[in-house]
Amino acid sequence: MQLPLKNRREAGRALAALLDDFRDRDDVQVLALPRGGVPVAYEIAMAQDVDLDVLIVRKLGVPGHEELAMGAIASGGERVMNQEIVLFHQIDQATVDAVVARETQELERREQEYRADRPPPELQGKTVIIVDDGLATGATMRAAIEAVSRQKPAWVVIAVPVAASVTINLLRTVVNECIALATPEPLFAIGQWYQDFAQTTDEEVKRLLADAWSRQGAARVDVLDDDIQLTKVVPEQWTGFCQSFAEDHRGWLVTLGEVDTRQLQEQPDRARHAMRKRADGVPLCKVAYDPGQNAVLVEVSEDQQARQLYVDHPVSLYRERVQDADKGLRIDTESGTSMLVEFHPVPSPAERAGVQR
Question: Quick one: which H or E segment has residue 110?
């Protein structure tokens, strides 16, 4: 593998190629360690078409040398300590307790921020792939392994882009498989093996999770007349899904139109043919859900000016796909009409480049 890696998402795509044995399996659960592990894990889960979730783990940094881990804590109350580091730096118990209390507070904040009321995944009897953006001391990964192991999974895999060889060799003794793209020596800092190692934000984590969760476990319905697959997005995920969808398709040419929802369900071809167009062949700029106004905003560029259309009082939001390619969005409203955001068949490179705003 050529180093440095371009960024976390490219690293995830490269890792996915090494995990092909797990493709399309219902018993596989990918667990990302936020924040940096989420973009890596997202690409793996999407490529292999398996479920994605997060396991919150917090490093316990040595005071004054926070990048050096004296231990880690994980969701469920798991704690792993590196006693050699604690003794070498002469860290007393009161200091350890203070660091644990601070990091526990941050762990709980992230649990609420990322998961809200979503329950954690069931791992018993499953194959679990734990993903991070790199392994140095391995303290956070060991805490994650202990938290996962409590649920008695059938198989545990560690997948990371880069790792210290001594660390990954130690982890091989406690999991079933360890997969890394590269084990450079000396490792020093994980970030030096990436061209772009900018901090992953909470917003990016939530956006990627919302997109992944909208795909998995959602009901798919085949509409036989034009073979459109509908994936229903649950309301709790509308905000993150709309943001992710817009970022992935910004600049693609779209047609916007209104149809009668009942006719769309009963006679989809006729309904689409009779669609009342609101805009045609214009670049998509933005899709956003405003929970305060209970409206979906669709912004396009028309005559090089932004035009905003609001879909008020939505009751259902669907992703439309044809032959595994995105076709657009369908937004059903309480008034009995649906707004369709339909992509033109083959977006050109210029369309994909998007409209910079």
Answer: helix 93-115
CATH code of residue 244? 2.30.29
Contact 339, 256 (CB under 8 A): yes
Of 244, 271, 293, give the one whose Cα is nearest residue 342: 271
When mean pLDDT is compared across 5-19, 56-70, 285-299, the lowest value belongs to 56-70
- Grade residue 348 by pLDDT with cuts at 50, 70 and 90: very low
Q: Specify the DSSP class assigned to residue 171.
A: H
Does the residue 1 lie in any domain?
A: no
Predicted model pTM? 0.64
- CB-side exposure of 333: number of CA atoms within 13 Å? 16
Cis peptide preceding 184, ω within 30 of 0: no
Cβ atoms of residues 136 and 36 within 8 Å = no
Question: What is the token pair recorded at 172?
Answer: 């091989």
Radius of gyration for the chain, computed over Cα atoms and rounded to the nearest angstrom = 23
Q: So what's the pLDDT on residue 184?
A: 93
pLDDT at 226: 55
Instruction: Locate 19 and state its tokens.
Output: 């995990």
Largest CA distance in the chain: 76
The residues that bridge with 282 in the sheet, in sequence order, are 254
Residues 250, 143 share a domain: no
Write down which residue in 189, 210, 231 finishes a domain: 210
Q: Which of 164, 194, 210 represents a domain boundary (last residue)?
A: 210
* Residues 171, 261 within the same domain: no
Residues 193 and 235 both lie in one domain: no
Residue 341 structural domain: 218-353
List pLDDT tens digits, range 30-52. 999 999 999 999 999 999 989 99
Q: Provide the CB-side half-sphere exposure for 169 (13 A, CA).
A: 4
CA 277/CA 87 separation, integer angstroms = 70
Residues 154 and 44 in one domain: yes
- The one-letter amino acid code at 68 reads L
Q: Does 51 fall in a domain?
A: yes
Q: Give the number of other Cβ atoms within 10 Å of residue 212's Cβ.
A: 25
Residue 65, domain member (yes or no): yes
Q: Which two tokens stand for residue 121?
A: 């995944």
Tokens read off for 236: 């709790």
Contacts of 140 (CB under 8 A, 6+ apart): 33, 57, 58, 59, 69, 72, 74, 132
